[in-house]
Design brief:
Length: 198
């Protein structure tokens, strides 16, 4: 098989994640996923016998793992610097997409599916959010933040970043994101005993 055919499955998952980030859960059809991935519709159903439900769940899992990997990479520099890097990544995504690119994990979590069979995506989204929180909590705890405070801050970070992305997309402006980012950076810097950046 050619490389183009063997990676068709991965391309469909990536296309689904990108479509969910831009258009939401219910606007994402398996036909359009296949078209954007340049994959034959028949082979898409071969790779995903569970249909749209399976593709969407895998797309959410894929996006969640990619973001978790990004968080882990940024946190190598420590919680404060890691948070700055993670925020910069999201800020750049907003700018590059002209405020059209959001988070596919959030889309799966908040959008009520028209197709009841797609409800499993919300559970996958919950798992992704929980993993990001664990990742952040552990980094904060390793930096000396008390366990309960580290867990609280991790939840605040995930919720605030997701909310900041939504506000900036709605307003087509970086102001809301930048204000939330500044507050998060201050919270984390104080928690780990670093001087907040000005």
């Amino acid at each position: 098989m050619t490389p183009r055919r063997t990676d068709a499955r991965a391309r469909v998952v990536a296309a689904a994640a990108e479509m969910m980030a831009r258009h939401g859960l219910n606007s994402t059809s398996i036909r359009e996923m296949a078209r954007r991935a340049e994959a034959p519709l028949g082979s898409t159903y071969h790779h995903f016998p569970g249909g749209k439900q399976q593709v969407v769940a895998e797309a959410v899992r894929h996006a969640g793992e990619r973001i978790d990997t990004a968080i882990a990479e940024h946190l190598r520099a420590g919680p404060a610097a890691g948070l700055r890097g993670f925020l910069a990544m999201w800020r750049e995504r907003l700018e590059r997409s002209a405020f059209h690119g959001g988070c596919p994990v959030l889309a799966a979590a908040v959008e009520e599916p028209l197709d009841p069979e797609s409800e499993g995506a919300a559970a996958v989204a919950a798992e992704a959010f929980a993993q990001w929180e664990r990742r952040l909590r552990d980094a904060l705890a390793d930096a000396g933040v008390a366990d309960s405070r580290a867990a609280e801050l991790a939840t605040v970070i995930v919720a605030a970043v997701e909310g900041a992305v939504v506000l900036s997309r709605a307003r087509r402006a970086l102001g809301p994101f930048d204000r939330v980012a500044a507050q998060l950076e201050r919270l984390v810097a104080e928690a780990v005993g670093e001087a907040p950046r000005r």
